[in-house]
Every structure is written in C-alpha cells, then in structure tokens.
Amino acid sequence: MDLETKVQFIKGVGPKMAIGLNRLGIKTVQDLLFYFPRTYNDYTQITKIRDLGNPNVEIRMTNKCQMSNVKTIKAKIININNRPTRRRKFIITEAVVADETGSLKVVWFNQPYLAKMIKPGREIILNGKISRDPFSRQLQMESPDWAGQPKIVPIYSETKGISSYYISRLAMNIKDQISKIKEYIPEEIIKSNKLVGIQKAILELHQPENAESLAEAKERMAFDELFLFSLQKQLMKRDILTHKALAMRIDEKFLQNFVKKLPFKLTDAQRKAAWTIIKNLSHDKPMRQLLNGDVGSGKTVVAAMAAAVVIKNGFRVVLMAPTEILANQHYATLSEVLKPHKISVGLVTSSANKIKNQKSKILPAGRHGKMTIQNAKIEKPDILVGTHALLHLKEPIENLGLVIIDEQHRFGVNQRQKLLAPSFQLSASGEKPQKLTANSQKLKAGLQPHFLSMTATPIPRTMSLVVFADLDVSVIDEMPKNRKKIITRVVAPENRAKTYDFIRGEIEKGHQTFVICPLIEMNHESRIMNQGLFDEDKKTVVKETERLKKEIFPDLKIAMLHGKMKSKEKDAVMADFRAKKFNILVSTSVIEVGLDVPNATVIMIEDAERFGLAQLHQFRGRVGRSDHQSYCLLFSSSNSETAKKRLSYMDSISSGFKLAEKDLELRGPGQLFGYQQSGFWDFKFASISDRIMIEKATEAAKKIASEIEKYPLLMEKVGEMGKHLE
Q1: Nearest-angstrom CA–CA distance, 117 and 531
Q2: For residue 353, is pLDDT > 60?
Q3: Which residue(s) pair with 104 in the sheet?
Q4: Integer Rg of the chain from CA
Q5: What CATH number should be reported for the domain whose range is 252-282+297-431+444-455?
Q6: CATH, domain range 487-653
Q7: Over the stretch 257-268, which tens digit does the pLDDT of each residue have?
Q8: Do 584 and 613 touch, CB atoms closer than 8 A?
Q9: Left (φ > 0), alpha (ψ -120 to 50) or beta: where does 702 sit?
Q10: Residue 584 half-sphere exposure toward CB, CA atoms < 13 A
Q11: Which residues touch 312 (CB under 8 Å, ≥6 apart)?
C-alpha cells in the first residue's frame, strides 16, 4: 500500500463503500489522510453535576425554555429504560445518572438500542445540551453523545452509508501511511514560526492526544492554508513582472489641464492615488493595482485620469462593471469627465450585445442611441464600458493598453484573465499596436495591458494581505469636502409613523428617498427557506411598494426596482428616478454598489438585520452624495440582542473600513461583500481575521517566492492548493 492506493483496497472498504467515500472526495489513501474532521467532541473537560445549575455558569434561555449550554459529565448509570410515546414508532430512552455531587435525568429520542448497550452500574462520559424539563422544570441532559473514557472524539462530515465513526476507524487503520507524507514547508519556516511537522499534525487531527496538541495541529494547518495561498499570489506577482508592458509617457501639462477642467476639486487622497497609479503606468512592467475607496470617495474620476493617460499614448481602455446599472453610470460619468479632452466612450450592454457610442453621427441629435456592434458604422470608442458582455464580443478589442474592473470580487478569475490576455499583441518597439496574424510569430514577445481593479467595499488590511496579495493597493480614505456626515439611526417600530412624516418632509423640500427591502416577494420557496415565526412580516419590494402607494403616500410617485426586471426596465426606472420623476424608489440590493443620485437624502432599510454591516454601509452610500444633509434609517424585525448590537455599530461608526473590520470579525469574509462566496476564503482551518497568523504567513511567502525553485515539493503543493482555491 502507498499514498496513491485506491481507497477501495483499504481493509474494511471494498467497491461498495468506496462509492460512498468517493462522494466525499476520498479516492486514495492520501485523500483519506487529508480528510480532516469538521469538528470535535471534547470529553475531557468534566463538569460536576452540582455545577450544571450554578448561576455563575453562563446559560442563555430561549423561548422553548432550553439552554444553549453543552456540557460534559462523568457519571454512573443508576437506571435506564425505554418509554413509548403516543407517536407511532417514537420511543424516548430515559436514564438517571449520578456522580459524587448529585444526580441528573438524561433523555435520548428514538435510540431504544441504548437501553441494551448502556447497563446500570456502568460509568461513562456524557456530552450534551443541558435543558429544563418543560413539566418538572428540573435540569436534564438532552440527546448526549457518550464515550467510555475522557477523550477528544473527531467528527467527520458524513454521507449516506458512510458514518463519522467509520471514517475515523479507517483513518486509524492506515495511520502507518502518515510516515510516507513528506514535509513540503521549508525547515527554516517551520522553526521560525514554531510549527509542528506535517506528519504529527495529521496524526493529531485524526487522533487528538489532548486539547493542546490538537490546537498545535490546527495552527499548523491554518498556517499552511494562508502560506500556500499567499505564496500562490506572490508567484503570480513574480510571473507578471517577467512580462513587459508598454511604458506610458506622462504629460504633466495634460494632467494639470485635466484636473483644472474637472467640475469639482479633487481631494488629497484622490490626487495621491491618481499619481501613484499614473507613475505605475509609466513603467515597462504590467501594472497590477487595486484602488480601494469608501462609497462616494471618487474612485471613478481617478480611473478616468489613468484612462486618459493611456488614451493619450495611443491605446484603448476597457472598463468592466458587475451590473448594467453600474455600467450605465460609469458610461455617463466618464462621458462627462472626458468630453473636454475629446475622448470617446462606448457602452456594451449584456441584454442585446449592443453598443452605445457618444460620437455616432447617424444617431438622432442630442441623444445617445444603441446599435449592434457588428453593423455599426462608427468610430471605435477610446474607452469601452460594459458588463461581462465585453467577454463575448465577436471582434477583439484592438490596441488595448489598460483594463479596469470595478468590484473585481464579483467576477471569476478566468473572466479577469480573459480581458488581460486579448487577441492582440503590441510590438516590442513600443510603436503602433499590431493585430495578431498568421505571421505573428515574427513579432517579438507580446506586451500585456496594465490592470486596475476598483472596489467600493473597504477591504481590511488582513484581507488585502491575503486576497489581494498580487496587487499593489491604493486607498482613498478621504471624502469630498462638501459631503456632510450621514445621520444614521436604528428606529424603534413604534416610531415608524414619525419616520414616514420625516420622509414626507424631505420630499416636500424637493428631495428623494430610497426604501430597501431584502426580498422581491414572499413566494413558496422563500417560506421554505425562512421558516421563522414572523417571516410573513418580512418586507418585500412588491408588497411594500403597493402598501406605500395605497396607505402611506398615495399622493406621491413611487417606483419599484429589483433584479428580476429586464435590463431596459431597470435602466428606465433609474433614469426616471435621477430625473426626479419619482419621489420614492423601493428596491432590493440591486442598488447596492455605485449608484449616484445626488438629490436623494433618505434611505430607509427594512429588516436591516438581514444584511451585513459592509452591505448596509454600501446602501448608506446611496445618499449623502451632495451638500444636502442625508439620513440612513434602519428598521429591524429581530428581537435578538446580537442583531441589535451589530446594528448599533451603524449609529456610531461612519468609516467603511472600521465597519468592514467589524463585519469580518462578526460574520466572516463572504458576508463582507454582501453574499456568501466560496473560493479564496474557503479555508478549513485559517481565519481571514487572524491578523497575526496572516502577517506571519504572508511574510514567509514573500521570502520564499524568489527561490521557490529550490523546493520542488512546495511548488507541487502550491499547484494543488491553487486548483482548490480558484
């Protein structure tokens, strides 16, 4: 037997059981050794029975009189019996157990075989939830796991026919194979970070000796995940630096004129970020830059300056956005900012693979029209703005010098790489770009376009060290001078009527209001997914729009927006709202990122507890985009103290970066971006909020990246990790 032996040839498996193991991704001996428990039952921390009811022990009551209080006791079985119930084939097993300090009732549901397995007089370890009997109000232990002696028991993810106990037994049957796993992390890194070896870590994870040794094994694997991922990013960065890009010439007089003609004054943070990016464009290495700025901080104009530099050097630019609403807004903003410099902007829509071009002469005067790319007899725009439709153009984008992606995390790695590897090649002389032809091999090595990523989701430093390790990061942490702080309040339900009066007052001043709901409508699927007692009270866009129109604001103009609407409908609603044809816009999270309506001064968020702090901050950024005082009003249908505390941070913290740190701490990285995502943060052991571990792993990866060729086993492991994480 070796590490590559098929799992079916392990003693106790065979072809039938191998099918079930394969469903769990276990195909070889090595797969089984690296199939780690998802959690553990710790039977070593023993509590005396008399202390289970100690008021000093933290016990949280629920509406079912149960306590979320899992404890472990060591006790002797006094008696144990099965008791039938009125429900057919449903049996309750009841036992009384005791230690030297007292006795306790124990109940199991539908496990009648336990009465034969656990005999009176036997001393066992029990681990379960402490609750109160609903009738006698006495303490009891409910459905505990049990063991013969104090130990830490691994719990594995299961599938039909494959139990956790079975996997644990198999892992122990082949533990002699652990010695064949070679250490892939360099010895100096292991020593400097005080890590245990890979063989010891694997053995401890499957068969923990004690809590301390298990913690050391978990620490080793957490370091592995962060180190390997960071190393993969560092190698990507190193690989990029082996390529060439066209060094853009910087015309400082043009830049001064550009800034002078802007309809607003740049902040110091914008100037600093823009100059950093432009200097990077002047190098002959491909720029890989992340522009991270809070909502409303003015990232688009910084990107416009970078784009203008590239265009003045004779090349074209692509800007890809995650939604059509955001793409339309970028198109409008860039058209306005770049018009004085005779730079043309085109828009590609995903709905019909069409282009809208501001320089077309065959369209009606005074309007931007649409026509198919293939049939358009127009000059090709200098900047092409669009959604993922840009990836499906029938003709390649010529002379591409800069790729800009907004909210990069909403696109896949392959989508980004497709834009960065266009079907065109720049001549090594830096002269006019040339299209690839059958004779392209006569040209020297092709030049890669520069890359700029933008995000309005403030990224905590710990995340940027890992997730964006292959990019240089510029931060815009300053808001325009005329912006007032948005007043944010969590509103009590009894003050709802006063809130509507306040909204009416703002509208009478000529302003507009957003109302955000978490759902489009409450259908059958929604009820299945959300079976809470008060789910019928959850606000939905469809019902709330109807209610506001009929009951609250019958005299006002109210529009509705959600993701299931057709692109043309969404565009029309947003255009009309910007044009002040509607007083109130009721919407889902489709307006979360980038939408700019300066006249809107109130955003009212229903069921706010259903959103992450970072996402709520994105919503808040839809107002406060002018010199008018703006307001963010949060309503919650939850009585949870945790939810109330989390929402209170919105009252006291206005910085998106600080809120992102809180969100990362409370909810995890998937929720930071407003929705759960797998991929680069799908770690089994590592925490993306563990700053110390991240800094250690990142520093080690940076040191080893330049000499990775010395460590073939490590290179192989990085390759395996890369396939999993991407």
Answers
A1: 37
A2: no
A3: 97
A4: 31
A5: 3.40.50.300
A6: 3.40.50.300
A7: 999 999 889 999
A8: no
A9: alpha
A10: 27
A11: 251, 254
